[in-house]
Write a structure and sequence with these properties.
Bound molecules: FE2/S2 (inorganic) cluster, fe (ii) ion
CATH architecture of the largest domain: Alpha-Beta Complex
Strand order of the largest sheet: 13-14-15-16-17-18-12-19
Order of helices and strands: HHEEEEEEEEEEEHEHHHEEEEEEEEEHHH
Helix content: 10-25%
Number of helices: 9
């Protein structure tokens, strides 16, 4: 259980909040590359409580600016893009991707006024078919090259999840909550993986698991499930906002305190380890909504529960727009949740002291491919799927 103040500290994402400052130390994906086209070169994005416009100018540079024009506040989403940047539709103030104001057409030709205007701008990088931004102090760190993103011996696919209408940290707590798999997902995940019939009982497949274990590692927290049949199943939570699933990563990006966008980057290795030379952007799938009506929140909407991710969204959203952690009863299976909260508090303190929080990468050395044991996890899951005995090498 937390105090009201601790809960605020853990969940707020806006500028100047401890959690918001922590999240501003990492590169965050904000859009897929195909969202910007010649016909639609601007896109409104709200990230960490800030209203922004992502755009591609006619020279091919991509920028992320405050959506509110520095002049009198019209939306730059309706701006005209040209070679040098984006020009506000209202009075034509022209901004480049760095936020420099290059022109203010209604001012006298000899005016030096544009040079006095500095518009808020964040750097953008394209990586694995997505645009990423960094909203913290310069110098910016590097995008960590986690194996699911950086390995070349396989293909990637991006799944854009329906918007999650609650605070991002509820999804992160779920990522260190191994117990829910055997209960919440008993009718979908486990039968598919192990060829067993859904049970639909209170205990679900809980008795398959002998114990859980959590360990802090350099990239985050590893959670482990030990099964009665000798299998050990482990994936890291990559601090602060990523779940590494058995075949990829799920990246949670706060839109604001009570809304979250989620990108799943799936990685499918080649059977023989061969390298895929294709450098084109991964295909993108927009996952259909998990609830109806889509724009409502619990209890005015109803979730479908026929998919694992839909079940998770139900569990996260129905905890409330921001879960009230002053009213909860944590038990022994919540040890990972407690560990993650402690880690957040500790790392927010580091940021407040001007230090880099956990997982920030600044040196290219060691950032070629960061091993999260993805390949072992995929192999293990394939054995489950095929119902084969696990070889000695994969046993605990
Ligand atoms: S409001 Fe943008 S140029 Fe006037
Ligand atoms: Fe889940």
């Amino acid at each position: 259980m937390l105090t009201k103040e601790q809960n605020e500290r853990l969940t707020r994402v806006g500028p100047g909040t401890p959690g918001g400052e922590l999240l501003r130390r990492y590169w965050l994906p904000i859009s897929v590359a195909e969202d910007l086209t010649d016909d639609k070169p601007t896109k409104f994005v709200r990230v960490l409580g800030e209203n922004l416009v992502l755009f591609k100018d006619k020279s091919g540079r991509v920028g992320l600016l405050d959506d509110r024009c520095s002049h009198r506040g019209a939306s730059l989403c309706y701006g005209r893009v040209e070679e040098r940047g984006i020009s506000c539709a209202y009075h034509g103030w022209l901004y480049d991707v760095k936020g420099n104001c290059l022109e203010t057409p209604p001012e006298p030709a000899e005016s030096k006024f544009p040079a006095t205007v500095k518009h808020k701008a964040y750097p953008v990088q394209k990586f694995i078919g997505m645009y990423w931004t960094y909203m913290g102090p310069q110098p910016a760190p590097l995008i960590p090259q986690y194996d699911a993103w950086a390995r070349k011996d396989g293909r990637r696919k991006i799944f854009i999840q329906p918007q999650l209408d609650c605070n991002w940290f509820q999804a992160m707590e779920n990522s260190v909550d191994p117990a829910h798999l055997q209960i919440l997902h008993q009718e979908t995940a486990l039968d598919a993986a192990r060829g067993r019939k859904p049970v639909s009982t209170t205990r679900g497949f809980t008795d398959d698991v002998t114990r859980f274990e959590f360990e802090e590692v350099p990239i985050g927290i590893i959670k482990r499930r030990f099964y009665t049949n000798g299998i050990k199943d482990e994936h890291p939570l990559i601090f602060p906002n990523i779940l590494r699933q058995f075949n990829g990563t799920q990246i949670r990006v706060p839109i604001d305190d009570t809304h979250t966008m989620i990108f799943i980057v799936r990685f499918m290795p080649t059977e023989d380890g061969s390298i895929i030379e294709d450098e084109s952007d991964p295909p993108v799938v927009h996952v259909k909504p998990y609830k109806e009506p889509v724009e409502e929140i619990h209890p005015r909407t109803r979730f479908r529960l026929n998919e694992v991710q839909a079940q998770d969204h139900m569990a996260w959203e129905t905890q409330g727009p921001i879960a009230d952690r002053t009213r909860e009863r944590l038990a022994t299976s919540d040890a990972g949740v407690v560990m993650l909260r402690d880690l957040m508090f500790r790392e927010m303190d580091r940021v407040a002291k001007g230090l880099d929080p956990k997982g920030v990468v600044r040196e290219q050395a060691g950032n070629e491919i960061i091993d999260t044991h993805l390949m072992e996890s995929i192999r293990e899951m394939n054995f489950w799927r095929e119902g084969r005995e696990l070889p000695e090498s994969l046993r605990v």
